[in-house]
Structures are given as structure tokens and as C-alpha cells.
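Catalogue entry: protein

Sequence with per-residue C-alpha cells
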Amino acid sequence: MKTAPKDFGFGSDEELLRDSARRFLDETLPIEKLRDLVAADPESVYERGEPTSWQPEIWKQMIELGWPGLAVPEELGGVGFKMAGIVGLVEEVGRHAVPSPLVSTLNAAYVLRAANSDAAGPWLERLVDGAAASLAMTGETASWEPEDCALTGRFEGDALIVEGTAFFVQDAGKADWFVANARVGDETLLVVVSADAEGVSVSSDHIHDLTRDQATVAFDGVQVPAEGRISGDGVEALRSAWPAILVTVAADLCGTSEWQLQTTVEYAKTRKQFDRQLGFFQAVKHPLVDAMMGIDRARSLLYHAACCIDQQEPDAEQTARMAKSAASDAGAYMSDRSVQLHGGIGFTWECDVHVYFKRSLHNQALYGDGTEQRRKLADAVIGSIGESRAPGA
């Protein structure tokens, strides 16, 4: 590995972006506003299955701030920002549980950028201009493997026709277009399909997370124009982008966990029981310390993984899986303790903890939970050890 830069490459520019994002979100989306936006009516969410609300105005402000263009190269009008800075921003997005297509758009940008194709340029430029995108890569088996395509394609003359169904498409209701892989003979083509293209239908999933939407997207004989055909090696593009995708979700997880920790600590300081603050009791303070250590460990792995991506290290995927594993485990532990340590009110709709609990739960499973990441790590590490051993050794 190359010599790691100081603080994982998180310098003054990255700090400025993070701090400005925190101020902006503190002002535009305080917890009271978030509660009114996504948790005002439990019946609409759970009994009628209606998608929760979001504010496109905040998304427009994010566009003006240049956030969707952070992962877009400078020559295409973006910022070309380091991964260490992007995860700092996404941590704040998770800390405020922002309902927006930012994370899904960043993930789509990583894949388009990794395609290293001239055809991807105009689509990346559209992201800078404010288009929202999402990945439509996952089949019904919920496999997150790049090789497992949700769609198939065929050529009819010069026209590419794609068929199939993509599952677990994040923020599909907010996306202007989808980035997908389609198996065409022996090739896997990376394509971009407009959300309003003929033959595309979006069916919202009923999920617990109140701060985003998820959908099943069906492609029924959709014709992909020439400009929508990005690369002839979609598997490699997705595999190259995979570390950044995992790290971005891990950053959101660290943000939601940090909010729950700080909120629970404040509650333990002010709530009294048996004439003492809750934080006085070891049964309260010890789990909070354990949670803090778990979050700090996950954050350390997060920024290390981001640094490996910035440094183009060959083990970037392994470090990203370590970060996602640690962030998922820390999120599960903190979410459990935040509800329990708020006592009886912690189990109610009126307590804001449930909003973050559900966002964290969704992120934990997204692209593989901690157990799945460790299984992949074991396969990679043990496999590489086995390959390096001489026959008969």
C-alpha cells in the first residue's frame, strides 16, 4: 500500500464541505421539520401504504450546492471530489436522515464514471445539471453480485430491446433515469433508461424506512437509444464502482448511528429515575460507551476505505467491505440501544428515534449486511491464501 496521507486525506476542503453541509441541513431540515415531513401520519404509511413525503426544494438547493456533481470529473463540469470528502458529506446526510435521491444518484455516478466511456459523459453532465438517477441492477434473488443481471437484451436491427425486472431500486420514485446492466448474448451491456420510457413501469415497495422510497422496476420491451448504450462491459464497471457504493452506504449508516448516540446520551443526561439521571446507572452508561466505540471503529474503517479508493489501492473492495460490515453492526447495536434506553417512549411513534432506527435498518441490509460482507471477505482472504500456497505445501 502507498503511504497513506494524513487523516486519510481528509483535509481543509473536505472539512469545509462537511461543516457547510451540517449548517445547511441544521437550518433547512431540523428534526421537527423531518418529523412533520415523514412521520406525521402513521396510518398513511403502514395502513394505506402511501410513500412518505420529501421536499424537492431541498434537493434543488443540494443541486445548487453542487452535491450531485461531487463524483463527476471536473472535465465534465463536476467537482471530481475525493471519496474522503464525499463520505464526510454523506455522514451529515445520514445524521439528518435526509429524504432525497442524493445517495442513489452518487451511486449511479460511480458506475457511469467507472465505465470509462465517452458515451457516459453526457449522462454525467446531466447529473451535474440536477438529474436524479438510480441503479436498477438487482434481480429477484436479491443477489448483489455484479455478474447477476436483472435484465436481458436483444438487438432487432440497430435497436436494443431490454426486458426483465429490477428489484430493490432505491429512490426510484425520484429518479429521472436508471442505470442498468443487460445481458445480451455473451456480453453485459451497461445502459441508461429514462424513467418515462415506453415500457418502463415503477411499482413502489412497502418498506419501513420513512426517509426514502424503493421500487420494483419492470422493463417490458424497452427500446434503448444509441446514446443510452454506455459500455460493453457493464460487469467490470459495476465491480470497479462497488467499493465506492459500499462506502457511501456505510457513511450514511455512521451518520444515523451518530445521531442516535448523541440523542440518547442527551436523554440519559436529562431524564431522571429514582432521583438520579439515567446516565448515572451502569446499565445505561456502559452500553452507550460500547456504542460509541463501535461507531468510532466503523468511522475509522470508513475513512480508511475512502482513502484506499482515492489512492486506487488494489484492496479497496476489501476495505470497503470491512467498513460496511462494521457500520452495519454498529448501526444495529446503536439502534437497539437507542430504543431501549429511551424507555417506554422509545417504542412509540412520537419518539423520533424510530425514524433513524428504520433508516439504519434499511442501510444495514442494503448491498449486503455485516454477515454478508464478512462472508465475502473470508472468501477473498482465504481464497487468496489458498492460491498463494504451493501445491502440496
